[in-house]
Design a protein that fits this description.
Elements lengths: L3 E4 L5 H9 L7 E8 L9 E6 L3 H16 L2 E9 L1 E3 L4 E9 L2 H17 L3 E7 L2 E5 L3 H8 L5
Parallel strand pairs: 1-4
Antiparallel strand pairs: 2-6, 3-5, 3-7, 4-6, 7-8
Helix pairs in contact: 2-3, 3-4
Length: 150
């Protein structure tokens, strides 16, 4: 099972959890994050995600290695979808297994903060007013900044 997948197909979080933990008897914790396209209030009709194949996977793998250097992690899985997605559809899955919940939670949040601010994805929202490209929000940048050395 690859640690990083960029795909157009949807994913099943239950299947991913079972795969992440298969044969893993040393982990006492598994933290997961599932992100969905928001916009059910008709503010976002669809989101299109583009990426640079190879570069995106390598970039995400690098942040996984950074997470491993910070915490004792036993298994990690990141899936990010690309293509046209509708409100309510799954967009990202991050799963982290560790000996203890604190490390699993921190690593999962660390990886997600990176994905929101640094991973090479280009997002375009379709709205009733037209299409617009989306950058990381200030709150995303602030969340990612807390992981930088002081």
């Amino acid at each position: 099972m690859p640690e990083v997948s960029i795909q157009t197909e949807d994913f099943d979080p239950g299947v991913l959890h079972r795969e992440l933990m298969a044969g893993n008897t040393i982990s006492g914790a598994c933290a997961t994050f599932i992100g969905c396209v928001r916009g059910g209030d008709n503010s976002v009709l669809a989101m299109e995600l583009e990426h640079y194949p190879g570069m995106t996977e390598n970039s995400i793998q690098a942040i996984i290695e950074e997470a491993r250097s910070r915490w004792d992690l036993h298994a990690i899985r990141v899936i990010h979808r690309v293509g046209k997605l509708l409100p309510g559809e799954n967009i990202v899955y991050v799963g982290v297994a560790s000996g203890h919940r604190g490390e699993a939670f921190l690593a999962c949040e660390f990886i997600m903060d990176y994905l929101k601010t640094q991973a090479p994805f280009w997002k375009k929202e379709s709205t009733p007013e037209g299409a617009r490209w989306v950058d990381a929000r200030d709150s995303d940048e602030e969340a990612a900044a807390r992981w930088q050395p002081q």
